Amino acid sequence: MNDIKEKRHEVYNDLKTDLKLFGVAFYRLGRNIYRLVRCIELPSFVGTKIVGYVKWVLILILIFVLVIGSVLLLRNCSDGVDRVGDEEDIEVEKFLYVPRVEKPEVAHKISNINYRKLFNDMNDAHLDAAKKIGIKRLESREDIDNASRNLIETNDYDAYVVDELTHSIPFLVPEAAKLLKRIGENFQDSLVMKHLPPHKLIVTSILRTQSDVKRLGKGNLNSSKNSAHCFATTFDITYKRFYSVYGETMENQAKLKLVLGEVLRDLKKEGCCYVKHEVKQACFHITARKSPN
Hints:
7 helices; 293 residues; 2 domains; alpha+beta
């Protein structure tokens, strides 16, 4: 939002400068034409009144051109400002989540959560679920078009943003894509109910090909060659960072993590996913089990 205001301010400043130059140019043009008229020697049969009329006609023409030119310039520039602003607003509003709940008079309390105890689904459970609904492993990113199932490209959305992915690509099977969307929307609604400012979740890892796993293994001893990420059913959401929607100071990170924990706890109870609380990677490792309701 601040970027939009800065761009508009910059455009308005340019507009003022252009109008000033525009006015000066017409003033000089009019003055020079007036001087030219005064220097022209008209035939003797042309009366003084006619010369005066010609001068006034020229002056009126200049005024008319100046007014029309100024109006057109103002209109074009203002249209440009509105157009730039509208396009930016559309891009921003496109990724702003509209809560499905109304803000209550009294904020809902945030539950205390034992992450290690509640989110301790082991890798075998994640793998079992991933193999049931996921794709066959891909050797490289070039094989994405030949995946065994249709995949949904996972880009920034109203309720979450996708981090810069270095060792994965943004594709999920439909069940996982719906689960991610649901997690993000439930998180946003929960923030409203708890009187907390809007923050988006940040997705840090999605689908990994075999080549991605090999590259990741070189710099990360904790990466698993038998990862559920290889089946397009699994994604990581960091709990250390949250995207502040309006650019204000981020709400207490621990508080936002608790809210996210509540959301994942409820979806886990419904049997929608397996969740592992990763300490070293500072993320929730989530695998879809079935299509969310």
